[in-house]
Write a structure and sequence with these properties.
By secondary structure, the chain is mainly alpha-helical. The protein is about 85% helix and about 0% strand. It has 4 helices and no strands.
Length: about 100
């Protein structure tokens, strides 16, 4: 099998011991940003704020999450699972922060 320059610079050529932790941390950051935007959108709706800002926040967070997962897909299936695990850990952190602050 012959390799050219384009095949050698793909994300799938990165070793797993580097791509898995990087995707997990990326998913964690992505999840924190996503759930912070959810919180901002909910606060905006409750306060009766501007509906276009709420729409922009919603579309922005969906787009950001989609692009983040697309980047993880380019690195492979295990990297995608690591990114998903990071997002789920961010969700758990945010929920723990909310429950700890209101208790």
């Amino acid at each position: 099998m012959e390799m050219d320059e384009r095949a050698m610079i793909g994300l799938q050529t990165v070793p797993l011991f580097l791509s898995i932790p990087a995707c997990f941390v990326g998913g964690l950051v992505l999840g924190l940003a996503y759930f912070r935007a959810v919180r901002m959108t909910a606060d905006l709706i409750v306060a009766g704020g501007r509906p276009l800002l709420g729409l922009a926040l919603t579309l922005g967070r969906f787009g950001m999450l989609g692009l983040g997962f697309y980047g993880a897909v380019l690195a492979g299936g295990f990297a995608l699972l690591a990114a998903l695990a990071g997002v789920l850990c961010a969700k758990a952190l945010m929920l723990g922060q909310i429950r700890g602050g209101s208790a």
